[in-house]
Specification:
alpha+beta; 13 strands; three-stranded antiparallel β-sheet; Dna Ligase, domain 1
Length: 252
């Protein structure tokens, strides 16, 4: 994805804001080019679904313009209740047998018609008695929704990952865990929280919870009689922030 003198933009379409970052270089020598975020109007995104497509694309364009995000190719992710993540245990079988039968096994765990979802899977462990498989599925309309928003903003979506596993990839690259290391990775958004219990590089329990930042703010508001307002985004990161980010990115 990172070619010579090429860059890519990472995009996070949240329920309350749009966040973007532009990186350039190679895997082990990435440089931060720019970053920024802007808030979304209320109810633009509900339960992970983009309700106002033009509003989202306009905000993406605004972030790119105001924060000098010039990369054409965009990497983003999906999360929420339209994403199904399941660890399943199957009888021992060959790679070809699994590929032929995965749809049949997956439909027992996915509450949607398989024709309406994009499905992927990965073998996480194999023994003489079983094959452990992690399946990931997302409704196609959700993926198409995100692709349209990016394309309307004049960008090209090249990767749409699952947020839970994107965070796990960051963890693995930065911390190179051993097989016995067990951690819980949290991605806390405004409306949902992704939880992923990982042993080594194996995801044991990926899940999505509605308990997130908004729930905490509501509780604190009621308990303390206070109110919360969204932060105003600055036009650019401070020199200190940029240096710190570049230093952290160099470890990739």
């Amino acid at each position: 994805m990172f070619g010579k003198k090429k860059s890519v933009a990472g995009l996070d379409i949240g329920s309350s804001s749009i966040k973007m970052v532009e990186l350039e270089g190679k895997l082990n020598n990435l440089n931060l080019v720019s970053l920024g975020f802007e808030n979304l109007p209320g109810d633009t995104i509900i339960d992970g679904q983009i309700m106002e497509l033009n509003v989202v694309s306009d905000v993406i364009q605004s972030v790119c313009t105001n924060h000098q995000v010039n990369a054409t190719n965009v990497v983003t992710g999906v999360s929420g209740h339209s994403v199904i993540l399941k660890n399943i245990v199957l009888p021992p079988m060959s790679k070809d047998e699994l590929e032929e039968s995965i749809d049949w096994h997956a439909e027992e765990h996915i509450p949607y018609d398989l024709a309406d979802v994009s499905l992927d899977y990965q073998v996480t462990a194999e023994t003489e008695d079983s094959t452990n498989v992690l399946i990931a599925a997302c409704k196609r309309e959700r993926i198409d929704n995100i692709k349209q928003a990016i394309q309307l903003a004049g960008k090209t979506p090249v990767v749409i990952d699952v947020d839970t596993f994107a965070l796990q990839n960051c963890y693995e690259v930065n911390y190179t865990p051993t097989e016995d290391d067990v951690v819980t990775l949290l991605n806390i958004g405004a409306s949902t929280m992704n939880v992923n219990i990982v042993k080594g590089t194996r995801s044991l329990l990926p899940a999505t919870s509605p308990l997130a930042a908004a729930s905490s703010q509501t509780y604190c508001s009621e308990a303390w009689g206070s109110t919360f307002s969204r932060p105003k985004p600055s036009n650019a990161a401070s020199p200190m922030q940029s240096r710190a980010l570049k230093k952290n990115l160099s470890s990739l």
